[in-house]
Amino acid sequence: MYLIRLILFCFFYMSTLGVAAGPIVIRDIRVEGIQRIEAGTVFSYLPVKVGELINDEKTAQIIRALFATGFFKDVSVEVDSGVIVVTVEERPSISGVDFIGAKEFDKDQLIKGMRQVGLADGRIFDRSLFDKAEQELKRQYLSRGRYAVSIVTTVTPLERNRISINFTIDEGEVAKIRQLNIIGSKAFKESELLDLFILRTPGMMTWWSKHDQYSRPKLTADLEVLKSFYLDKGYLEFNVDSTQVSISPDKKDMFINISISEGDKFSVSDVKVAGELLIPENEIRNFITIKPGEIFSRTKLAESTKKISDRLGNDGYAFANVNAYPEIDKNNNLVAFTFFIDPGRKVYVRRINLTGNTKTRDEVIRRELRQLEGAWYSADKISLSRSRVDRLGYFTEVNVETPAVQGATDQVDLNLAVVEKPTGNIMAGAGYGTGQGLMLSGSISQQNIFGSGRHVSAQINTSQINTVYSLSYTNPYFTEDGVSQGFDVYTRKVSPAKYSSAYSHYETVTNGLNARFGIPIAERDMITYGLGYESTAITVYSDSPLFYTNYVSTFGNNNDAIVLSGGWMRDDRDSLIYPTRGTMQRVTSEVSLPGGSLRYYKAGYQYQQYIPLSRIYTLMLNADLGYGDGLNGLPLPFFKNYFAGGVSSVRGYRQATLGPKDTIGNPKGASHKALANAEFLFPFPGLQNDKSVRLGAFVDSGLISDGYSFEDFRYSTGLSLTWTSPMGPLKISLGKALNAQALDHKQFFQFTFGGVF
Fold this sequence. Notes:
- This protein is α+β, with helices and mostly antiparallel strands.
- The chain folds into 6 domains: 24-90, Roll (Ubiquitin-like (UB roll)); 93-170, membrane protein fhac (Ubiquitin-like (UB roll), Roll), CATH 3.10.20.310; 176-261, Roll (Ubiquitin-like (UB roll)), CATH 3.10.20; 267-342, Ubiquitin-like (UB roll) (Roll); 348-420, Roll (Ubiquitin-like (UB roll)), CATH 3.10.20; 434-753, membrane protein fhac: a member of the omp85/tpsb transporter family (Porin, Beta Barrel).
- It has 13 helices and 33 strands.
- The strands form 7 sheets. The protein has a 16-stranded antiparallel beta barrel.
- Helix 4 crosses helix 5 (129-142).
């Protein structure tokens, strides 16, 4: 009986509690435990307000909401007579992140990497981010070949609930590739295949290139190059069976073994064309470079499909699909291809959208575009448009996309996105050349002033022979048709004897101004003409050669000329810095008009061609001719003579010393110039993929004379190095004069560092 009464009493008591825990009205809300975070910040995250009802579900919502902010590591909620008391324990904030022992990376770079994973000054500390942070640090060090790196993380508590984080790093030594083997090669020597790779064992220049450090992306790229090499040689069934990368126990040496299966060499038995032929089959076959009877080449196959697609793209078929389907005869090692053509629907460009040009005006970009809005899509015109915008030199990136217009099957938009770069430049520098001595230079220029595409520059260049001051202005679109207009104002002082006694003692000071125009006659052809005025003051000395003294006695110390100039240029080289293919031709001419004391004319022609011999070898051929003479019975002024010799013409001979000499053996120049250069260009060993450094083996020949005679030609041979360094271009040559005469000035070592106006 007593037990029954006890059970009823407990049941009644629990029922009373349930009623007491029911919804009540919130009279007030208090927050306790906060140190750095404002109370208003906490209130903004609460899902309840004063005057609302509170129950168990609402209480749970408060806790979940505050935990979700990430600011707190503990949250509790109590309800007392309608007053909600929220008690929190804040997570500490990060006061600073420091790196001890980091030498491989700049600290700013490491701090940026930590910020990406959530560790940065002012952020809330989360211990779970430690593993992520250490993995990010290790990833960066592994990318540099430091596989022995170890990282110890220390957290130091500070006042006001803050912490500092220190990463103590033992970087270890860089792991080098000690062995790189290709297993299974029979048709080609292993050394020949390894020459295709970027990765290599330590060599003479790998300390610079870092190519002796393992990198997965580099290895993947090397394997693709290896596969392309075999496929271009006809090995249709070539395969990379396995790749094994191992590291020594001390994590200093790496070993890479690549196992391959070459398979048999295949020849092309037949080539067919099928599908919807919108252009004549004969024309399509002209685009197919892979022919029956030839060894299979994947490069030729890809080129063929691309040429057909581009040809259809020029007619508006932007989404043409060309596939080459193989029919393999393994018994006879033959393969036949059927080029199946699906042109798709013809489309036109609805709209051209420009983005990224915050400074450069739209019109500056749009006037370079050859693809027009509302016109049929043309792959060639779009490619040419991108190239022309890129050649402006105002952007670091030029990207083109042609997305289809939503809801339309015959329209695309052309989206051209650019990334602008600074086009203003203030420079002060120095250089040294064996032909010019010490060169000091300074300039201020703006290639894209006010975003208009116009060029303005002022330059000062000095050397022990030449001193030049100039001011130039160019408007590349003086007319809407692309006619350029510009002017130059300059002062040029020439004092050869100040540099060396090998040059005659005289001095000329030329002041001039020139107006010029350029007329484009094709996409890569330009005709130029200009009209200028020059005034030249000549100073001779007691030890000046009789040739110069007689000239001053006859024509006076001061001469002037009204000069009309004209020219033509075509340039289709693939690069201005590291050309490997293409030609450049230039014709120049100038003639002095009546009205000045000087009467003369000069004409020149230069032809330069780059012939690719392989992926890394290039042959450069150059010819440069010049001819000048006086008019109306007057001689060609001696300061208008041609000169040659030096690092930029005939190496192995001192700068501007080839040709006739005066009575004391000093060069005086002549009216005829003929230069010819042949240079075998190749990358620096260990820097095959670095386009800033290039070696060359050259043969030079040149003639400076008052008449063309093969007996007067001088020849030289040697080695050259060109380096586009961060400080400026450097050219070095070791040249041996082959047929120098008694009065010639030979010079084995020559170099130029920096630019000369």
